[in-house]
Structures are given as structure tokens and as C-alpha cells.
Amino acid sequence: MPQKSSAAKPSKAPERAWQRMLSGRRLDLLDPSPVDIEIEDIAHGLARVARWNGQTRGDHAFSVAQHCLLVADIVKASRAKPDPRWELAALLHDAPEYVVGDLISPFKAAVGIDYKGFEHRLLAVIHIRFGLPAKLPDDIAKLIKRADRIAAFYEATELAGFTHAEARKFFGTPGRFSPELLIPLPAMAAEQQFVERYTSLKLAVQ
Fold first, then answer.
1. CB of 27 within 8 A of CB of 99?
2. What's the CA gap between 111 and 29, in Å, rounded?
3. Which of 41, 82, 136, 178 lies at a C-alpha separation of 20 to 30 Å from 144?
4. What is the pTM of this model?
């Protein structure tokens, strides 16, 4: 009877937990570092992630980058003396999606991992990278969340086929803010506008 080999089996290679960016950075998803985060990578990724799972009107997807620009506009318009730090925080509020994508809320609720916890950890690191508090003051976090829901209302009704009644049910009443006509931009244009807004805000913060 042949004897079984006593040679040890090769160990399984560890699973890759990092994302290579076009800048050359390698972002460890389990232990992200601020030094591996670049605004160009964020802008490039967000400009290519579609809101509403791509179910929007227009020749192009309405990107997360464009959504972030809209939320920053709403935050700026909602304060008599806008603070550029909080407008920058609004611009970056969905920045983790350059890595994890934009899962619609119903799917996030069904995912069997602490998806929101992961997003919050990555967002804290992004804040640190760009000179913002890891955790925003409660009033600012609420302001940005409100602006996010206002943006969602207009995106839903103008682009995603929701009735106003449906949008009010899910996102609340938008108040008096009324954005310009929402026209989805090509990815390169959205990316450029995102970087330009970041640059202007960063100069204002310094």
C-alpha cells in the first residue's frame, strides 16, 4: 500500500485586501492610511460611480461626484456665513464610495456585514487626510445629512422617475432650496469640477 506523503501542503495565499489606485497608491481597505488617499483618486472614482444604480434619465449616469457637488452647494446656501471647512466636508461626504461604490439604501440594509461601520472608518481617515475633524460636530453632520436628503429629493424627482409624493415619503420636504436643472455630466467633466471645487475650498480653508 502506498504511503501518504508527509510533505506539508503549501499554505493558501492571503486574500488581497487593498485597492490599487491610478495614482499608484495602494489603499488597505482593512486598515486605511491617510497617506494613501489622494483627491485625484477620489474624484476619478466618484465620477465613474452612478447614483441610483444608473436608473436615471440623460445621456450619462448621474455620478456620485456630481451628487457631492450638489450637496456642497446646498450646505453653502443654507448658511448665512458659510464655513469652507464644512462645505469641504459636504463635498467629501460620500468619498468612501470611490472604493466601495454606491450601494442603494435597501441593499445596504440587507448586506450581512457592518457596511456603514466600514464607510465611517474610511470617511474618518479621509477627513484626517484633508485637514478635517475625524468626527464632525453633531450640528454639521446633521446639516450635511439634511443637504444629502434634499439633493436626493431633486435627483429622485428630476432624474430617477419618482413622483413628488414618493420622494417626500422617503426624503422629506426639500424646503426652499431649488437647484439648477440637473443635467448628468460626462465622467471627465464631473471629475474636473470635483477637483476644481476641492482646490478652491482647500485654499479657503488654509
1. yes
2. 17
3. 41
4. 0.86
